[in-house]
Design brief:
Blueprint: E1 8-13, H1 20-36, E2 42-43, H2 51-63, E3 68-73, H3 79-88, E4 93-98, H4 113-126, E5 138-139, H5 141-162, E6 164-169, H6 184-188, E7 192-196, H7 198-207, H8 214-225, H9 230-250, E8 256-261, H10 266-271, H11 276-284, E9 289-290, H12 295-308, E10 313-319, H13 323-328, E11 341-346, E12 359-362, H14 364-370, E13 380-386, E14 390-399, E15 405-414, E16 424-429, H15 433-442, E17 449-453, H16 458-467, E18 472-475
C-alpha cells in the first residue's frame, strides 16, 4: 500500500519523409514483447508526425489514464513535436529509439532513429526537460521492452514524490544535528511537509484511548510475534491507530505519506513505550517511519520503497567487526577485507520479515538512563534480531547545510554471520567500504542513518537521483580507482 500504480502510455513518432508504417510496426512489436513479460501498456494508435498529432496523442494517453509516457522513435522522428509532447505530458517521460532489424532491408526499411535521437536530445535541452534516457537508448523490440521494464520503478518514484507528504512530530534532536537539514529542497522536489509538535501527537494518542480497533490490532501483533503481552501491546496498538488516523485526516491534497518522529528521551516517559515496533509495522506496509525526526531518512526510505516495491529500513552505519570474529569464522567472511565490513544497527525498527528470529524486547541504551534499577517497562517496544542474509543497497538522499541535494549509493550484502549484539543488527559487506566511508560518507558530511534496500536497486536509484537533479552522487569506487581527494601515495 501507499505506493502509486504506474500506468504506461506508449507513443511512436515518425518523421514525415519516412514511412509512418515503419514506426507503427516497430511500436506494435514492442507491445507484443511487453505482453509476453506481462507488462501492461496503453498503445496509442496516434503516430506523431507534427504538432497536431502530438496534441491528439496527448489527449489519447491522458484519456487512457496514463501517468508515465514512453516516446518511441520508430524512425528519425520529428524533434519538435515529440519533445513538445514530452513537455505537455504531466508525468515521467522516457525516450528510446529503434535499431535496424535486418541487413536485408536497409533501403525502405531503414529508420535512422540513431540519428534522430541526437536531434531529440538537442530539443530536450532547448525545452529544459529532464526525461529518462536509458544508458544505451537504441534497441530492437526485445531490448526496448527491457528498457521500458527498467523505467517502471523509476517512474514510480517520480510519481510518488510529487504526491508525497512527510509528517514530523517533535523538534529535530539537538544531539543529532545531522537530522536538522534544510527543508527547502523538499519543496523543490514537489514534496509537502507538515511539522507538528509532540504535544499534538500526545493529545491525539490520548484521544484514542479505548478505541474499538485496538483489540484487533493487538491480535495482529500477536500473530506476527507468535506471542505477546496483551496489556502492553494495547499501548502500541493505540499508537499505530493514532498515526494512521492522523495521516488520513491531514494528508490533504497528497496521496502518499511517511513519518519522521521524535522517539526519545521524553517519548518513553510520557507515552510509556518505545515506538520502534510500530515503525517496523508501518514500514512493512509501505509507510516508512524514520526515527529521531530524520526527515531525509523518511524521504530516503520512501524512495527505496517505490524503487524496490519491498519494505526498506533505516540503519546506523554503526561499528566495525572485531578481528577475532573474522578470524574464528573465516568462511563467513571469505572474499572480504576487514575494512569491507561493518555492522548496521538500529534499536528495533526493521520489519520482522528481515529478521531471523524477531522478538519484542526493550531498548537497552534507554533503559540504562530511564530504568536503571528496575524491570524494563517504558523502554519496551523494540523489535530485535539478527538480519537475514540478503543482497542490499545502501542509499541516502540528503540536503547539505546550503540547501543542495546530494546522495550516495552502494551495493553489498548482509552476511550469514552472528553479529553477537543487541537491536536489529547485521554484519554488512560492501566492497571497498573503508574508502567509501572516508571519501564519500565522512567527506560528504552524511549523517549516520543509511537507508537500506533488501535487494540490489542501485541502477534504478542512480537514474532516479540524476533525474531529480542531484549532481553529487557518491558510490563505492573499485580498488585502483581513486576518489577525488584520495591520497595517491597512501
Amino acid at each position: 500500500m501507499n505506493i502509486p500504480d504506474v500506468k504506461l502510455g506508449l507513443v511512436s513518432v515518425s518523421r514525415d519523409c519516412f514511412p509512418m508504417s515503419l514506426s507503427a510496426r516497430r511500436r506494435e512489436a514492442i507491445v507484443g514483447d511487453l505482453a509476453l513479460q506481462l507488462i501492461d501498456v496503453y498503445e496509442s494508435k496516434v503516430t506523431v508526425e507534427n504538432e497536431n498529432d502530438a496534441m491528439r496523442a496527448l489527449e489519447d494517453i491522458n484519456k487512457a489514464g496514463a501517468n508515465a509516457l514512453v516516446i518511441f522513435l520508430g524512425n528519425f522522428g520529428p524533434e519538435g513535436p515529440e519533445t513538445l509532447l514530452a513537455q505537455k505530458f504531466c508525468g515521467p517521460v522516457m525516450f528510446c529509439a529503434a535499431a535496424e532489424e535486418t541487413g536485408q532491408d536497409l533501403i525502405n526499411g531503414r529508420g535512422d532513429a540513431y540519428c534522430g535521437m541526437l536531434n531529440a536530445s538537442y530539443n530536450i535541452g532547448l525545452r529544459g526537460l529532464k526525461p529518462y534516457i536509458p544508458e544505451y537508448p537504441i534497441g530492437t523490440a526485445q531490448e526496448i521492452s527491457t528498457m521500458i521494464k527498467e523505467f517502471i520503478p523509476i517512474a514510480r518514484v517520480l510519481i510518488g514524490l510529487k504526491k508525497l507528504k512527510i509528517f514530523t512530530f517533535g523538534p529535530r534532536p539537538f544531539d543529532f544535528l545531522a537530522c536538522n537539514a534544510p527543508i527547502k529542497p523538499l519543496f523543490d522536489l514537489g514534496v509537502e511537509i507538515q511539522e507538528n509538535s509532540e504535544l499534538d501527537l500526545f493529545a491525539s494518542y490520548k484521544a484514542h484511548a479505548g478505541d474499538e480497533r485496538i483489540e484487533s490490532v493487538v491480535d495482529d501483533m500477536i500473530a506476527e510475534l507468535g506471542k505477546g503481552n496483551r496489556e502492553f501491546l494495547k499501548r502500541l496498538a493505540q499508537f499505530e491507530i493514532t498515526l494512521l488516523d492522523w495521516a488520513e485526516a491531514n494528508k490533504g491534497a497528497s496521496e502518499y505519506y511517511v513519518f519522521a518522529n521524535k522517539c526519545w528521551p521524553a517519548f518513553q516517559t510520557q507515552f510509556g513505550f518505545v515506538p520502534c515496533y510500530i515503525n517496523s509495522r508501518l514500514t512493512a506496509r509501505g509507510i516508512p517511519v524514520a526515527c529521531e525526526t530524520d526527515i531525509y531518512g523518511a524521504l530516503t526510505e520512501f524512495i527505496i520503497t517505490l524503487a524496490s516495491e519491498i519494505p526498506p529500513t533505516l540503519l546506523d552505519i554503526n561499528n566495525t567487526v572485531p578481528y577475532d570474529m573474522i578470524e574464528t569464522s573465516p568462511e563467513a567472511f571469505k572474499g572480504y577485507k576487514p575494512t569491507d565490513l561493518f555492522m548496521g544497527f538500529h534499536c528495533g525498527n526493521t520489519a520482522s520479515c528481515y529478521l531471523r528470529v524477531p522478538e519484542m524486547k526493550y531498548q537497552l541504551i534507554m533503559k540504562r538512563s530511564l530504568e536503571p534499577d528496575s524491570e524494563p517497562d517504558i523502554s519496551r517496544g523494540t523489535l530485535e534480531g539478527a538480519l537475514k542474509p540478503s543482497d542490499i543497497t545502501l542509499f541516502r538522499l540528503q540536503s547539505t547545510a546550503e540547501g543542495q541535494l546530494k546522495s550516495y549509493i552502494a551495493q553489498g550484502e548482509i552476511l550469514d554471520a552472528d553479529p553477537k549484539s543487541f537491536g536489529g543488527i547485521g554484519i554488512i559487506a560492501v566492497r571497498e567500504m573503508g574508502r567509501f566511508y572516508r571519501h564519500v560518507l565522512i567527506e560528504g558530511r552524511f549523517p549516520h542513518h543509511a537507508g537500506v534496500a533488501f535487494k540490489h536497486v542501485g541502477k534504478t536509484l542512480f537514474s532516479v537521483v540524476k533525474l531529480l537533479g542531484v549532481g553529487d552522487v557518491g558510490y563505492n569506487q573499485p580498488a585502483g580507482v581513486l576518489y577525488k581527494a584520495e591520497n595517491p601515495f597512501a
